[in-house]
Design a protein that fits this description.
The protein has 461 residues and is an alpha/beta fold. Helices cover 42% and strands 18% of the residues. The protein is built from 16 helices and 18 strands. Strands 10-13-14-9-8-15-16 form a 7-stranded mixed sheet. A 6-stranded mixed sheet has the order 5-4-3-6-7-17, with helices on both faces. The protein starts with a helix and ends with a helix. Bound molecules: nicotinamide-adenine-dinucleotide. The site of nicotinamide-adenine-dinucleotide has 28 residues, from α8 and α9.
């Protein structure tokens, strides 16, 4: 039944795409403006669903799931015309009397698979990019955030023709059924292990993919850092959404000389954010489900708890926690934490910190706190990561001018702003030859013309 539905919708989307409606820039703009209107009108409903799924604080829901989408929509609507314009590029002299153009071609029918941690933003932001580039889309929101998934399905089906944008709800089986079919592009946000499953499935149809995955994002606090600011900015990025952020600082690398001082300030910062009992704070989210609750709770056995550590299985509450005496061999350092636990590791010199980072898979983000530009250059030159911040955490995700994506195990491909438009567009190159004359040089019989060719290439370098 599911397969039949998918095939029907796919067929309708193919026909809609071939009909050419999405190639019209005015159509794309109109649909993006409609999407913005729908979101604006339903802000409360979306936030309510996020509260049901994750007990997400209103501020966090608005900032990271709703507000963040408006600049994406507006930037796209304002710039699609310029982005989509065929670009004339110069033509090598060898192609004398020709002109060259790069056309931005929409892929066609795309599949967007979303995760549960920012279930609204991470399903809709790729959709904005797909729409701006002129594609049709099928969305598969995460089944682990069912309230938000339901709202997405409802809002999209109420306002968009499924021949243009459709939603399929469901879990692994439904995703597998979708992946059986041939799409023209797949955009996946989720864990590294499932990312491999997606890429494998895409390979069967040679479908290009963007994989927005996770990883262990290191956070370095060097000895010269502004410790008060660093503590606030790290605690905010770490405990936002109770640590269930792909970009969250995963573990702390702190210079030995300032470790004790920094930890004291960090603990006070947590209390100033969430009070003495964070379970009573309206500003602190809950863990998505029992499986993740047990997984994160088990990771607390690594090292020594020096702050927090309280849990409540009934409400899936895990306090903002700091762990000291953590060893690199401990389970907490072997997987992405994706929860409110912060392991602390100290280093003597920056090279030691770099060795720790470089011994692990390339992370989605890296955060460095220092006022020393030499340290900054050294760290940037000697590490590889998706994106990051100096003297802040997470904030780079909120700029439409900064392409967002991972590298290595943290993913491939970029989006946000123009990067999203580019991701969902094929760059089609076209060389247009003049009919004024026809150069014989290239046609057989070649005779000894290879010598002339050699000279020519020597001249044009
Ligand atoms: P997940 O990989 O478990 O699930 C993501 C999606 O894949 C869901 O829609 C799910 O239904 C589907 N899925 C799960 N198992 C599948 C299977 N075997 N076959 C086919 N489809 C399957 O990820 P998650 O738990 O929802 O999210 C957490 C992970 O996502 C973390 O690792 C996090 O770092 C990462 N993440 C990355 C970003 C980013 O932008 N790079 C953003 C958010 C989350």
């Amino acid at each position: 039944m599911m397969t039949q539905n998918i095939r029907q919708i796919l067929q309708r989307q193919r026909e809609f795409f071939s009909g050419g409606a999405t190639r019209d820039i005015a159509f794309r703009k109109k649909q993006l403006i409609l999407l913005e209107k729908i979101i604006r009108k339903n802000e409360q409903r979306i936030m309510q669903a996020l509260f049901e799924d994750l007990r997400k604080p209103e501020f966090e829901s608005y900032a990271a799931e709703i507000g963040i989408l408006y600049p994406e929509i507006r930037t796209a609507a304002k710039n699609i015309h310029a982005w989509a314009k065929p670009r004339r590029v110069s033509t090598p002299v060898l192609h004398f009397l020709a002109s060259s153009y790069v056309y931005q071609e929409p892929y066609g029918v795309t599949l967007i698979i979303g995760p549960w941690n920012y279930p609204f933003q991470l399903t809709i932001a790729p959709l904005i990019a797909a729409m701006s580039a002129g594609n049709c889309a099928i969305l598969k929101p995460s089944e682990l955030s069912p309230a938000t998934s339901g709202v997405i399905a409802h809002l999209i089906s109420e306002h968009f023709d499924p021949a243009y944008i459709a939603v399929f709800e469901g879990g692994v089986d439904e995703t597998k059924s979708l992946l059986e079919e041939k799409f023209d592009y797949i955009f996946f946000t989720g864990g590294t292990a499932v990312g491999k499953v997606i890429m494998n499935a895409a390979a069967r149809h040679l479908t290009p993919v963007t994989l927005e995955l996770g990883g262990k994002s290191p956070t370095i606090v060097h000895r010269d850092a502004h410790l008060e600011y660093a503590a606030k900015r790290i605690a905010w990025g770490k405990y936002f959404n109770a640590g269930q952020t792909c970009l969250a600082p995963d573990y702390l690398l702190v210079h030995r000389e300032i470790k004790e001082r920094f930890i004291n300030i960090f603990k006070k910062t947590i209390i100033s954010f969430y009070g003495d009992d964070p379970s009573k704070s309206p500003d602190y989210a809950r863990i998505i489900n029992d499986r993740h609750f047990s997984r994160i709770s088990a990771l607390m056995k690594s090292g020594t708890i020096i702050h927090g550590g309280q849990t409540d299985p009934g409400t899936r509450y895990i306090a903002p926690t700091v762990l000291d005496n953590v060893r690199l061999e401990d389970p907490i350092m072997k997987e992405e934490i994706f929860g409110p636990l912060f392991p602390v590791i100290s280093y003597e010199n920056i090279e030691e910190a770099l060795n720790i980072i470089n011994a692990m898979p390339r992370p989605l983000a890296l955060y460095l706190f220092t006022n020393d530009t030499k340290i900054e250059t050294l760290v940037l030159r000697n590490t590889s990561f998706g994106g990051g911040c100096i003297n802040d955490t997470v904030s780079h995700v909120g700029s439409t001018n900064l392409p967002f994506g991972g590298i290595g195990d943290s993913g491939m491909g970029l989006y946000h702003g123009k990067a999203g438009f580019d991701t969902f567009s094929h760059q089609r190159s076209v060389l247009k030859r003049s009919n004024l004359i026809d150069m014989k040089l290239r046609y057989p019989p070649y005779g000894k013309r290879v010598n002339l060719l050699k000279k020519l290439f020597r001249i044009i370098g």
